[in-house]
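HUMAN: Please help interpret these tokens:
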Amino acid sequence: MAKVGAESKSKFEAQNIFAMEDTPLRSMSIGRILLASKNSQVFNLCKQSALESGLEFKRVKDGRACLLEALRGKELGEPYDLIVLSVSLPVLDGFSTAMLLRENECARMVISVSEQENYRYETDSEEAGCDRHILVSELPGELKQILQNKKNNLSELLS
């Protein structure tokens, strides 16, 4: 793993999904992002956001690989803080992957991403246990807000 730099806000804050409570080493970490997407545009947008925020970032290209990597992180005591899933993943689709991630408690936050606006995607994402569904065109701003909230939570914890 390389080290690289519209749900309501109240629900996001209430879940306090990025609270760092594990070990002293873990509490010094800013966070980890796992991206499951074969789309290079989504990859570049997520990578840029991670670079700007100083986060660890890893990419996999299918749903099965995402689930296996998330389970590995959980077993090592280093769960991913944020998993971004394209809805159209090969091997295991994004919605099925999200359900399995939630069943196995493998992530603090799961976001689904699609290129087209589709009410069904939003509904399916919610039913699968995703915290949010975001359009690729909105990804940079939404990720920036999520990551800034995460940094603020970490700053409060360390002060």
User: Anything to note?
Assistant: The chain has seven helices and six strands.
